[in-house]
Write a structure and sequence with these properties.
mainly alpha; two-stranded parallel sheet; 3 helices; 62% helix
Length: 64
């Protein structure tokens, strides 16, 4: 199993992805997978990065 990442590490990874169209599509796909897995819709106006970080933190994938 992969070691949990710090919030800063994961946020930097996600921010690097959002800078390209392909990365943005990857983030949206990841968020869609999390919606399907958890049943929670992303609140209107919430950034995809924030949504992913909250979901991963709740699942124990992010520490700190």
């Amino acid at each position: 199993m992969e070691q949990p990442k710090t919030l800063q590490q994961r946020q930097a990874e996600l921010q690097a992805l959002i800078s390209t169209p392909q990365g943005r599509a990857e983030l949206e796909a990841l968020a869609s997978n999390y919606v399907a897995a958890g049943g929670r819709m992303r609140p209107w106006g919430t950034s995809v990065i924030t949504y992913i970080l909250v979901h991963e933190r709740q699942k124990g994938l992010i520490v700190g």
